[in-house]
Amino acid sequence: MRTKFMNLLEETLDKENTDLWLLDKTNLSHDNDYLDEKQYNALLVVIANRKGIGKTKFMDLLEKALDKENTDLWLLDKIELSHDNDYLDEKQYNALLVVIANRNKGTEIKKSDIVKEAVMEQNWKKALQIAKNFRIGVTQDQRIKMERAYECIVHPNFYQQMGTDIPKAIEQGKTIVKEYVENIKKIREGNHMKRVYYTINEKSAKLAHEMMSFSEYKSGSKTAEYQQYVNKAYDLADKVAEAKPNESDRVYMLAERYSKKMSEYINTESHIGTLCPSVMISGAGNFPVRKKEKQNQAWEKNHQFFLEVQGILSKIENVIYGKEQIKSSDNNAVEKLTEKLSNLKNKQEQMKAANKAVRMKDLEKGNEKLKNMGYSDAQIKQLREPDFCGRIGYPDYELRNNNSNIHRIEERLKILKAEKEHGVQKTEYGLFRVIENTDIMRLQIFFEDKPKLEIREILKSNGFRWTPSNLAWQRQLTNNARYALKRVICKLKEVQEIN
Length: 499
Prior knowledge:
- By secondary structure, this protein is mainly alpha-helical.
- The protein is built from 20 helices and 5 strands.
């Protein structure tokens, strides 16, 4: 079975267009039956980096797949596709592996799943190649060891000349990647991810303590304090993993980020403490007042950093209680908003029913109804406690606020669904092309080359920002963005006329 993808490639060859990767010139789009929008965007990155070469090894591999009657052209890993070939760098290869796996399975596959499968097949080269770039659940030291193991597999002669113990290096990488896969398996079975702690400078902490206090410093106390903070973040992440397994990767990433940031905060705090002693330690004579002022300013700045880091905890807590920010660009934004709307409506009905039970003349029947609704004795007591206005139950303003949120979410859902149904729209404007990308809810402007400073200023003044990951100038897809685009088009026409 020859797909439209293959036909388009051959059409490109027939036209003697040596740049096989300009597939957008041959009407390739995510609307076709073999690519979704994310896969199309991933391929565009490869496309953009492959110019000016004729019938490439990629084309040969595709034909090889057809010769074997392999109708799934995306089983490229079965035909020895690797980033060692002359047309893909490592990042592009890793991105394509996800596309390949998603194409094979028909469901969303993560890189961790590909690594797990590679480990089961004992394909250590493939497993290490992907895992060495992971940031979640892997320390920097482990990443370095996995990278060294991978390099030893790919370039054994070079590392042998360098005097590296190749079997030992490879075994270290294999051990780390196996531990990672086991960790992922435990999380998905309802267990918890291994906690990542960073190094605390105990020497600096001890010196800072001695410059501020007469009491003896307890060895390891700063590390213990740091781990208490980090454990709080991981405890919250564990709760999310149990209640919402789909969110586990994200919250564990947040927990690890919190761990790293807190280590930075505590080490900086200790370093600042060593800059100037307390007046109680040094005495008042010739005390460096100016130095002390600078130290206090540094402490104040570091405290602001601490407050910002605590915001990560709030993000994890919001996921637990369903208060997390739902971005329109999220893959499952519609599903999340629908779930949130359902929860708000249930809450509204519950508050109404609770108020009705609280206001019953028969207290025992009212309490019985509340207990049947799931309220504890303490909660019932709180509902019956009059507030400063003498109101019992849920106050009317709380019902009004919740009802407003229901209407707001309904309106947002209506707009988002309409945009999604509208689909991706593309328009050519000569100098550039515009894509209304409803998958990530962004209005994108693409230029062939880097625009001039004057054009960049026009884009920035209208809210468009350069995004390297998408190779586009973009802003959130809204009606305001469309109006801004009209202003940009008018301004660019003026610039063209002047030039």
